[in-house]
Write a structure and sequence with these properties.
Elements: E1 3-6, E2 12-15, E3 20-21, E4 24-25, E5 29-32, E6 52-57, E7 63-67, E8 71-72, E9 75-76, E10 80-83, E11 102-108, E12 114-119, E13 122-123, E14 126-127, E15 131-134, E16 154-159, E17 165-169, E18 173-174, E19 177-178, E20 182-185, E21 205-211, E22 214-219, E23 223-224, E24 227-228, E25 232-235, E26 257-260, E27 266-269, E28 274-275, E29 278-279, E30 283-286, E31 302-303, E32 309-315, E33 321-326, E34 329-330, E35 333-334, E36 338-341, E37 361-366, E38 372-376, E39 380-381, E40 384-385, E41 389-392, E42 412-417, E43 423-427, E44 431-432, E45 435-436, E46 440-443, H1 451-456
Antiparallel strand pairs: 1-2, 2-5, 3-4, 6-7, 7-10, 8-9, 11-12, 12-15, 13-14, 16-17, 17-20, 18-19, 21-22, 22-25, 23-24, 26-27, 27-30, 28-29, 31-34, 32-33, 33-36, 34-35, 37-38, 38-41, 39-40, 42-43, 43-46, 44-45
Amino acid sequence: MRSIAIQADGKILVLGSFNQVGGAPRKSIARLEANGRVDPGFNPDCGQNNPYHAVLVQPDGRIVIAGEFKTINGVPRVGIARLEADGSVDMSFDPGSGVDSYITGLARTIDGKILASGYFSQYDGVSRSGIVQLTDNGKPDPAFDPGVGANQAVQAVALQSDGKILLGGDFTAFNQVPFTYLVRLNPDGSVDNEFNSGGNIDGPVNTVLLDNGRIWIGGEFRQVNGEPFGRVCRLNPDGSVDASIAPHPRADSSILAMCLQGDGKLLIGGPFLNVNGSPRPCIARLNPEGSLDTSFQPGTGPAGSTTSSFYTLAPLPDGKLVVGGDFWSINGIPRHGIARFNYDGGLDTSFDAGSGPDDTILCSQVLPNGQILLGGAFVSFNGVAQGHLARLNPDGSLDLTYRTGTGANDSIIGLERQKDGKVLAVGSFSSFNSIACPCVIRLDRQGNVDRDFASKAHQPNGYLYAVAVQAG
């Protein structure tokens, strides 16, 4: 996982470079229910497994995504697109030829425009190096002109309440003026010369976060304005070091993500192992003055690869925290790429995307009681045998009371619920629970075969892919 966003309804958008989430096939983007289960009704298709890097949820519920894709749902969209809430492409937002490389950050201005930052020098044929502002139709805003822009990538963007824009990254100059890794722009894209970080940040800035006017920065640096800082520092609004930070926080490796909780404490994530001399594998929480919050105990942390790390953090209103990154387990408990922590740093075991189905989900029906019926090519779900059909509880767990026997002997491709609660299934199967039913079957609410319906079904000369119930 490379980016996480929380929707107003509590659902969670996750982006990265993956082929499945919780066992469900998803190409680099997925939406999860609040309990971590995959939302079966949201499945945009970028055509192949291209990495996604950034996501922004607009107040109207539409979703801006950015990555290394060329199409979404078959619609040409180079590097950036806007989706409707259901995952379909918003055709009113058209980036044209898009970016000549890729976008790593998105932010929304106070007047509703979109700022995109990253590794690019052009957007829709217009010269924009590292930063571009877009109008609501996805085109470059001519009122925002950063000149020649950054001489290297812009990794992070943050918007102040006055409309000024903070940029962090790998650059050492902006619009041909020396700025080492951090710069502030005016709303029109020009450099704000009143902001002065001293020009003495000695390494890249990966993330920027505003804290009541003050500015947290995290990255690769060891010094800021001649003072020792271990990859995290807080600045005053004018760019000088905040002297109230004592002792200076120190992480032993990069900081890639930061977020503030409601009590003003700062969470940091990255491939580090220690913070302020204490073991904190990949995640830690700092008190407002910069000291390590020892009440946050994440245990042994993530595992699963030689570069396990948290790349994105998203705080929840109840004090819990959703994390995404490169890992297969947390504290020895299986969690693949996404997990949720309690306020004290313990793993929230009620949030679990699970292993899901062992093959593709091809169709779904949300039932009136909130349960979800799934059909597809799978023969097991979360390790339990399910013959191409499964019913989930609203929390995403498998409904073990739904007993369909051996189920279908081949894929279920279409599902439709009748008004009486019975369900029609079609696909490539020839039997269901050993009862002959060529490519179409009707089940009651408990998953039993309607034998009268099965006895009257005729053999088609091919497979069935869809089913719909008419009013009569």
